[in-house]
Every structure is written in C-alpha cells, then in structure tokens.
Amino acid sequence: MAKVTVDGIEVEVPNGSSVLQACEAAGKEIPRFCYHERLSVAGNCRMCLVEVEKAPKPVASCAFPVNDGMKVFTDTPVVRQARRNVMEFLLINHPLDCPICDQGGECDLQDQAYAYGADSSRYGEAKRAVKDKDIGPLIKTVMTRCIQCTRCVRFSAEVAGTPELGGTNRGENMEIGTYVEKALTSELSGNLIDICPVGALTSRPYAYVSRPWELKKTESIDVLDAVGANIRVDARGPEVLRIIPRINDAVNEEWMADRGRFSFDGLKRRRLDRPWVRKDGKLVAATWPEAFAAIATKFSALPGDRIGAVAGALADAESTLALKDLMAAYGSANLDCRDDGAAIDASRPEFYRFNTTIAGIDEADALLIIGSDPRKEAPVLNARIRKRWTQGKFPVGYVGPRGLDLTYPAQHLGETLAALEGSAFLETLKAAQKPMLILGRGALQRPDGAAVLAAAWKIAVETGMLTAEWNGFNLLHLFGGQVGGLELGFLPGAGGKDLNAMLAGGVDALWLLNADGFDPARIPASTFVIYQGHHGDAMAARADVILPGAAYTEKDATWVNTEGRAQRGLLAIFPPGEAKEDWRIIRAFSEGVGKTLPYSDASAIRLRLAQASPVFARVGEVVRAGIADTTGPAGDAGAVNTMPFVLPIPVYHQADVVSRASDVMAQCAAIYGPAPALAAE
Q: Which residues form the 4Fe-4S Mo/W bis-MGD-type domain (predicted)?
C-alpha cells in the first residue's frame, strides 16, 4: 500500500494505483472524458490534470502511478487554468447543437464545461465537420461531436470482443468509425451509448423523442435473458421510451444486452389488452366475468388429474406461485415450468443453478462449455468470461457447432459429448485449481436431455470441479422466468404429468402462463386452452380463453436469475386496456370459483414466496458455496446419443415474444439475418 496526500488528506491505496484513483479515495472529484473504470487507460483527453509535488508540469492523473509519500494538489490556480485550456481545445470543433442533441441534459461535456471551463472562447474560426457513419439500426452517429476519447474503440475491443471501431487519420483529421462501413455485430453495442461522454453516439430508436428530465425513472430487472441485468426503465405517460442499465458488480457490472435494451417498442405492439373467449370457433372480445365463467364451467366438469398448467420463460415468481396454489386447490399435480421441454432435474438446486455465480467467473482458471453459445444466450455473462480470459491463464474449450465466435479463443472439442472421451482438455481441467463447466439449457431440450445433464455432472465430478470449497457446475438458462419456477417446484407432483404427457392428451384443460416455448400445434384439438400472457403470439391464437397479463415493465414482480439470485422489478407503466398483473388475475379467478388463495396483496404473496423457497427470503443476494454431496442427477450418463448439439437461439434479436413484436428487433434480424451455417473445420 502507498500513502498519498491529496489536498492535505492522507489516503492509502494499493501499489500501482493511479493518481486519479488516489484522488477519488480522498473524496476529490476529478473531471475526465477518456478514462473509464472498466477500460484500459488511454490518457488522451488530458482533462484530469492535477499538480504533483516536484513535477515540472501538471500530470494526467489517470495515467500517472502513485508513489509512497506523494503529494497531490487538485485545485490550484495552475490546475484550474490547465483544465480551462483543455476544455477550450475540446470545444474548438465541437458543434453548438446542444438544443437538438439527444445527449443534452446528461452530457459529460456540458457538465464539465460548466464546472471547469472558461466563460468564453478565443476561437472564431470555422469548425470542422465529419461525415456521420452508418453502423446499424441501434446506434445513431453524429461524429462532428466526437472528441476522440476512444472509449468506444476500447469498449468494442476489450469488453465486447468485436474490434470493429478504430481511428483513421491523425490530429485534427482523425475520425472514429468502422474501417469499412458496416453495422456493428456485437450484442453489447448499446453500451457504446452509455460510455460516450458526448453526443457522438446516441440511441437511434430514442432520437428526438424526449429529454431526460421529462422521464419517470423506475428500477427494474431485464428478463429477456437469464442474467438478470439491473436496469432502469424510463417512461413518459403510458409508454416506455428507453431502457438503460444500472450498476451491479455482482451481476451485470454496468453493461446490458442489446435485446433487453432496444426491444421495448415491442411492449406496445401486438398486445393483449382485453379478455377473449372462443365462441363458435372464433375468438370474440369478452368481459372478465365472462372469461372466468368459461374457465370455471370447463374446470367444474373435469377431475383434477385432467387439468394441467404450464409456466413459461417470462412468468414472474408471484404468478407462478399463484398458479401452483390454484392447481393444488383443484387437486391437480400436472405442472411444468419447462415449457421448452428441457430435461432438468430439480431435485437439488445444484442441478439447475449457475453455481459458480457470475462474479465467481473471475476466480475460475479453466472453462468447458457444452451445448451453449453464451454470446447469444447471455451476452453480459459472455463479456464476464472474456474479461477473465483477458487476465490470462484461462483455457476455454467447447462442445457444440463448429466455428462459434465467442469473442475469445476457444478450442473446439467436437460436436458431441463422445468427442470428449480421451480429450487432452479434460486433463487441463483436472490440472486447474477452480475449473468450471457451463451447460446450455438448449442441450437439455433433446430427447436424451436427462442423459446429457447426467453426463455433464459426471464430467464435473471427474475433473475436480465439485469440492467443499468450489462448485464449478453451471446450467445457463435462457430467460428470466425459468429459474423461479424451478425454485418454487412448479413441476409434476405425485402422479402428475409433465409437459410432454400433457401435450400427448394427458389433460383436457391446459392453463398456459406466458408459456410460448413450444409449438402450439402439439396441443390436441380437443384440449381446452387458457392462455394468460401479454402478447398475441402464436400461442394466443390457439387459446379458447385469453387472459391479458402485464409485461415485466408493468408490474411489481420477483425474478430469479440463472445463478439463483432473486431480484425485484418495479412497475414503470400500467398495463394497457383491461390487462392486469398476472397473480392478481389468478387470485381473482380463485375467489370467483370459491377456492380463494390465501393472499390478497403484494406483501402477503411475497411472504408466501419466502416460505416456499429460501431464495425469496434474501432478495438481491446469492450464496456461493462448495458442494459435499456429488451424487448426480437422475439420468443415465451413458445414454447420450451421437446427435450433434444444436443451439436454441438461431436469431438472437427475436428470441422471445417481446422482441418478436419489436420493429427495431425486426430491423436487426433483417440486417444480421439468421445465424449463418457454420463452416466445417
């Protein structure tokens, strides 16, 4: 540790820290444009100048290392004048278009020019102009505003792993862009908007829509993948206008995937905003009492074992619990939350959680990926893996389709698990101190899914991934509602039928709660279907009764991410039309049929959640621990067939009902197209 005195305040900072970090430890604000805590140091904006004792001139604090006994001065006449001069240079060519700039009101350049700049400029020459770059349907560029801080270049290369941005020319003629004009291919490209300190890179869907002070800001959770990124939903009136990430170092750091960020326009399209009942073969608009009466009439004529329920990938924990309790009141054990047919053994949490935890990736020293493409399934988690790879000594191998670009080097071990037999990579895992394995949920959707799960667990045991201090077995889920159902035990009870048995004619009435993970054509024509959800996707067209629910931005709800961390999202806008919060719909129906559920407000149902699983008693936290019992899940590890693994998300931008309703995501899908056929090795 080095002792540094900053403006008379003595602080201790780790050796190798920068002067800027020492100043922040002393509580001093240092202006900056190029410096970012999660990117490499560039030192090219010079806004962070400070005085250091015995130094001949002001130094750039972001790139100057501390020494023991160093004395730093952050607010002297020399420092103030130096910052004014730097700001004057930055503003020489910056256009005076703040009134029409989308960054206005939350622009670092505006704020720092006011706080640290001079009150006038000496330059009267014409400003330069730079041609805007077309880098896709998500990012709007006004490159005349660019101050060449190179944050975007470093983010693309270091965090996203897609080094497509760079600088051409030198000096005043330098321009940032792609060398050959094309759309950015990263699934994390929206983060360029957040890190750009000026208005050079802004959101194209949000262009000229509103000012930040007009927006109501609500904290929530991104459920369009299973990472559970912490987000802020910005709305005006009844409409969501943008979604941006919040900082949570344990989950998403400060990044967010593009699908969750830009698909919000799908929240207002193809929405279910009133109940519907099928009469004479056609769906007709109905009232809530009429819809409930149609369900009650059907249920009253059926024994409990002929009624079933399926909770889908975007179902929140409260509604899943309410539906489970309702089915219990009818005497039905026909439940399943695996609407994609994944063969998940939920008898122990270790079999279906990301046990290493997302933050635990930083400690791992070897990785095996089976049947998964983390870049498409969980882009933020993939960035965490890349971050660990950049630190060195982190071999990665994967079993799956050839030619995957994971944004970091990975050894292709084969297309089937059989290719691992005798593989040298297994010896690499055994030699590692903290090896980890990521099994894709899509790998469990195969007919031999249970065998794949058992085989992956066996590999984890044999390579030393499961110890009293470390659990390296991880199942990577796809959406934010999938783990909550497993935690609540929304699975077949004694004598109950699973999804496949229900779709094979095992039930006469089927309640689908946001369940869109299977082909509706699999439902027998004679089955009475209740669809409860928020979008008129394919499943709604098959329903006999439609109950309009609320999307994730329209309710106070609890979600569980892939590592088993319960998190709460808050209501940002109200559901459209007559749509209601999902658990309240189920509660109202139960009261109407005389099977009233024992909770009538949010606090009561959350108490019931905490009783159902300890996960919901520690919201926002996750317990990482080793494992003592290495007994594997049900399934024959030797029964894995030779079928190659197929990835579950062929088109990243249209993987769920919200993004499929989004015009922005449709543009992205048209530009990027389906995943190309991967070339043979």
A: 215-271
The one-letter code for the residue type at 647 is L
Cα gap 401→414, rounded to integer Å: 8
Domain-embedded: residue 82: yes
Does 155 fall in a domain? Answer: no
In 3D space, the residue among 83, 175, 95, 91 whose CA is nearest the CA of residue 130 turns out to be 175
User: In the β-sheet with 216-221, what is the strand arrangement from edge to edge?
Assistant: 216-221, 230-236, 239-245
Q: How high is the pLDDT of residue 674?
A: 65
In which domain, by residue range, is 51 found? 2-90
- CATH number, position 74: 3.10.20.740
* CB contact at 8 A, 570 and 316: no
Structure tokens at 449: 């899914």
248 inside domain = no
DSSP sequence for 150-171: -HHHHIIIIII----EEEES-G
Among residues 681, 631, 641, 648, the alpha carbon closest in space to that of 417 is found at 641
Burial of 185 (0-12, 13-18, 19+ CB in 10 A): middle
Q: What is the pLDDT of residue 677?
A: 44
Which pair of structure tokens corresponds to residue 553? 């931005």
How far apart, in whole angstroms, are the C-alpha atoms of residue 272 and residue 266? 12
Asked if the structure places residue 16 within a domain, the reply is: yes
Long-range contacts of 7-11 (CB under 8 A, 24+ apart): 7/72, 7/73, 7/74, 7/75
Residues of the chain with pLDDT below 50 are: 675-681
Question: Vertex 269, ends 265 and 273: CA angle to 5°?
Answer: 130
User: What is the value of pTM for the model shown?
Assistant: 0.94
- Taking a C-beta distance cutoff of 8 angstroms, is the pair 514, 531 a contact? no
Q: How many domains does the structure of the chain reveal? A: 1
Could you count the other beta carbons within 10 Å of the beta carbon of residue 579?
Answer: 23
